[in-house]
Amino acid sequence: MALQSVSFRTALIRMTFCVVLLSVFSPAFSQTEQKPQFQFKNGVGVTAPDSMFSINVRFRMQNRMGFTMTDEDTTWSPSAIEFRTRRTRLRLDGWIFNPKWQYALQLSFSRGDQDWDNAGVPNVLRDAMMFYEPNKNLRIGFGQGKLPGNRQRVVSSGEQQFADRSIVNATFTVDRDFGLQMHYHLKTGPLHYFIRGALSSGEGRNEGVNKSEVSQNTGMCYTGRFEFLPLGLFDGKSDYYESDLAREPKPKISLAGGMSLNDDAIRTGGQLGKSLYTSRDISTYIFDGLFKWKGISFYTEFMKRIVTGGGSSITLSDDGAREYVYDGEGLLVQSGYLFKNNFEIAGRYAHTRPVGETIDLKDVVQDYTICFSKFIRNHRFKCQFDATLQRHLDPGSAELTGQNVQFRFQIEMGI
Questions:
Q1: Closest by CA position to 160, among listed 340, 348, 331, 325
Q2: How, if at all, do strands 364-377 and 275-293 pair?
Q3: Phi-psi region for residue 30, left (φ > 0), alpha (ψ -120 to 50) or beta?
Q4: Regarding beta strands 296-308 and 138-146, do their DSSP bridges make them parallel or antiparallel, or are they unpaired?
């Protein structure tokens, strides 16, 4: 009987000891057994078990084929055939330490997407931005990314209504740059305002890798943009993707204006283009407007670029070679209707016109485009076919100097 009592006491002591150990170390065990959180709403997202960082991974590709015919003395003949991957992108974004500290990284891998011809190197890096978001209305960014310029440039190339952006954007956009950015949202009753500004280098993305003169250029670029939304916010921020995929139940409007001054720019397009032989001050003015309602979308933008500060648009090398800033203006108007089966038909008119010293160097160019799109999974998976009539006219006499017809078929796929 005594032996049984001792055995019972020993078992009770051992059991008590095990309970104490479990109570002490169970939090540590449970912490190590925590699993990361996954989400698949917009790409593939992972949040660390300790919630110290998150990462969201996305990719997309644009595969395109195109065919161009040129009018030569009233005879139309094939002049170009295009089969290529227009864009291939990898995008990573998320936050570190705290959701207020965010990052965005984007890489490009197709040659046509790397500005190889102008930069002389493969510009793989497109975006490398760090953000601090102290509240839902203020966001501060530092790094390389899109400047707050014309809306069509800021809208992703994967969320366009046509197979690509217009000739107005291609000619006058301020594109990407490295510097500081600030976005601020203000609301007064039903009215919403967005103020966006940037102080940047003015040299474009990844500049300085093969141009020693960049490090000696003290000029900066100053960019500002103001947006006014009189009828309230767009559903799901649809003011920054084209086509009315949100099918806005009520009319929505966004009106915007902006300006960019690139002091001592060393490239023909400010942040883009070939190197100038002498730096120039370039001013770009931007006005755009957007309307969406029940599948209807309408967008227009006007851009104007001039050389300021008294300098000539044309720069010359010691041996007489010439590079120049395209002084000019452009107008874009496009509209579309999205049917309930996610098939859309859209039309676009765009033109660019030289002014000042470049009037004898460039033609007036007019584009008339019609596009048919099928959205299989919104902009993430879509098929597009567009046809463009492009006309070149003499700026002085307005006489036709040439024209061509371009057909493009493109499939966009990504996550």
A1: 348
A2: unpaired
A3: alpha
A4: unpaired
Burial class (CB in 10 A: 0-12, 13-18, 19+), 48: middle
Q: Is 381 exposed, middle or buried (0-12, 13-18, 19+ CB in 10 A)?
A: middle
Phi then psi for residue 220, to 5 deg, are -125, 170
Structure tokens at 314: 């044309």
- Cβ(257)–Cβ(301) under 8 Å? no
Closest C-alpha among 92, 94, 87 to residue 105: 92
pLDDT in tens, 166-184: 999 999 999 999 999 999 9
Answer yes or no: are the C-beta atoms of 346 and 243 closer than 8 Å: yes
Tokens of 81: 């055939």
> Which residues, 6+ apart, have CB-to-CB distance to 310 below 8 Å?
none
- List domains and CATH numbers for the chain: 55-414 (2.40.160.10)
Per-residue model confidence (pLDDT) at position 160: 97
